[in-house]
Protein backbone atom coordinates (compact mmCIF):
# COMPACT_ATOMS: atom_id res chain seq x y z
CA UNK A 1 0.00 0.00 0.00
CA UNK A 2 1.33 3.43 -0.86
CA UNK A 3 1.29 6.20 1.73
CA UNK A 4 -1.53 8.05 -0.04
CA UNK A 5 -3.70 4.94 0.12
CA UNK A 6 -2.81 4.43 3.77
CA UNK A 7 -3.74 8.02 4.61
CA UNK A 8 -7.09 7.63 2.86
CA UNK A 9 -7.81 4.29 4.50
CA UNK A 10 -9.11 3.59 7.98
CA UNK A 11 -5.63 2.69 9.22
CA UNK A 12 -4.76 4.21 12.57
CA UNK A 13 -1.52 5.97 11.62
CA UNK A 14 0.23 7.33 14.69
CA UNK A 15 3.21 9.03 13.04
CA UNK A 16 5.16 9.62 9.85
CA UNK A 17 8.93 9.91 9.69
CA UNK A 18 10.49 12.10 7.01
CA UNK A 19 14.14 11.26 6.40
CA UNK A 20 15.44 14.35 4.61
CA UNK A 21 19.18 13.75 5.05
CA UNK A 22 19.51 10.04 4.24
CA UNK A 23 20.29 8.99 7.80
CA UNK A 24 17.60 6.31 7.86
CA UNK A 25 17.26 5.64 4.16
CA UNK A 26 19.98 6.18 1.52
CA UNK A 27 17.82 7.81 -1.16
CA UNK A 28 20.79 9.16 -3.15
CA UNK A 29 22.00 5.62 -3.83
CA UNK A 30 18.49 4.61 -4.93
CA UNK A 31 18.13 7.64 -7.21
CA UNK A 32 21.49 6.75 -8.75
CA UNK A 33 20.31 3.19 -9.40
CA UNK A 34 17.03 4.45 -10.86
CA UNK A 35 18.94 6.78 -13.22
CA UNK A 36 21.19 3.92 -14.32
CA UNK A 37 18.23 1.64 -15.02
CA UNK A 38 16.29 4.38 -16.87
CA UNK A 39 19.37 5.25 -18.92
CA UNK A 40 19.83 1.62 -19.90
CA UNK A 41 16.15 1.40 -20.89
CA UNK A 42 16.67 4.46 -23.12
CA UNK A 43 19.97 3.21 -24.55
CA UNK A 44 22.01 5.83 -22.68
CA UNK A 45 24.90 4.23 -20.80
CA UNK A 46 26.29 5.34 -17.43
CA UNK A 47 23.44 7.66 -16.44
CA UNK A 48 23.94 6.59 -12.82
CA UNK A 49 27.31 8.35 -12.87
CA UNK A 50 25.81 11.55 -14.32
CA UNK A 51 23.91 12.19 -11.10
CA UNK A 52 27.12 13.38 -9.43
CA UNK A 53 27.46 16.15 -12.02
CA UNK A 54 23.92 17.37 -11.38
CA UNK A 55 23.62 17.29 -7.58
CA UNK A 56 22.14 20.54 -6.33
CA UNK A 57 20.69 21.48 -9.72
CA UNK A 58 17.02 22.11 -10.22
CA UNK A 59 15.13 20.50 -13.09
CA UNK A 60 16.01 23.28 -15.52
CA UNK A 61 19.70 23.01 -14.72
CA UNK A 62 19.65 19.23 -15.08
CA UNK A 63 17.86 19.46 -18.42
CA UNK A 64 20.44 21.95 -19.69
CA UNK A 65 23.24 19.65 -18.51
CA UNK A 66 21.63 16.64 -20.23
CA UNK A 67 21.20 18.63 -23.45
CA UNK A 68 24.80 19.82 -23.42
CA UNK A 69 26.65 16.72 -22.20
CA UNK A 70 24.42 13.72 -22.99
CA UNK A 71 22.59 14.61 -26.19
CA UNK A 72 20.65 17.53 -27.63
CA UNK A 73 17.42 15.54 -27.98
CA UNK A 74 17.53 14.08 -24.45
CA UNK A 75 14.10 12.54 -23.61
CA UNK A 76 13.47 14.48 -20.38
CA UNK A 77 9.87 13.44 -19.79
CA UNK A 78 10.42 9.75 -20.52
CA UNK A 79 13.59 9.72 -18.40
CA UNK A 80 11.69 11.37 -15.53
CA UNK A 81 8.86 8.85 -15.69
CA UNK A 82 11.25 5.91 -15.86
CA UNK A 83 13.38 7.16 -12.98
CA UNK A 84 10.31 7.74 -10.78
CA UNK A 85 8.90 4.30 -11.57
CA UNK A 86 12.26 2.63 -10.99
CA UNK A 87 12.86 4.62 -7.79
CA UNK A 88 9.61 3.39 -6.22
CA UNK A 89 10.20 -0.20 -7.34
CA UNK A 90 13.62 -0.12 -5.66
CA UNK A 91 12.25 1.59 -2.53
CA UNK A 92 9.45 -0.93 -2.21
CA UNK A 93 11.92 -3.79 -2.57
CA UNK A 94 14.40 -2.23 -0.10
CA UNK A 95 11.70 -1.45 2.46
CA UNK A 96 10.34 -4.96 2.31
CA UNK A 97 13.85 -6.42 2.51
CA UNK A 98 15.34 -4.17 5.18
CA UNK A 99 12.66 -2.52 7.26
CA UNK A 100 9.39 -4.38 7.49
CA UNK A 101 9.97 -8.05 8.29
CA UNK A 102 7.19 -8.49 10.82
CA UNK A 103 3.83 -9.94 9.84
CA UNK A 104 2.18 -6.71 11.00
CA UNK A 105 3.85 -4.69 8.20
CA UNK A 106 4.08 -7.21 5.37
CA UNK A 107 2.50 -6.02 2.13
CA UNK A 108 2.57 -2.33 3.01
CA UNK A 109 4.25 -0.20 0.35
CA UNK A 110 5.38 3.22 1.55
CA UNK A 111 5.70 6.17 -0.78
Tell me about this structure:
The chain is 58% helix and 0% strand. With 111 residues, the protein is mostly helical. Helix 2 crosses helix 3 (47-54).
SSE diagram, text form:
Blueprint: H1 3-8, H2 27-41, H3 47-54, H4 59-70, H5 76-98
Helix pairs in contact: 2-3, 2-5
Sum up the overall morphology in one term: elongated
Order of helices and strands: HHHHH
Query: Helical stretch count?
Result: 5
Structural class, please? mainly alpha
* Main sheet attributes: strand count, strand direction, barrel closure: none
Uncertain runs are 100-104
Helix content: 55-70%
Strand content: under 5%
Count the E strands.
0
The separation of the N and C termini measures: 8 Å
Sum this structure up briefly.
The protein is mainly alpha-helical and 111 residues long.
List keywords for this structure.
111 residues, mainly alpha, elongated, 5 helices, single chain
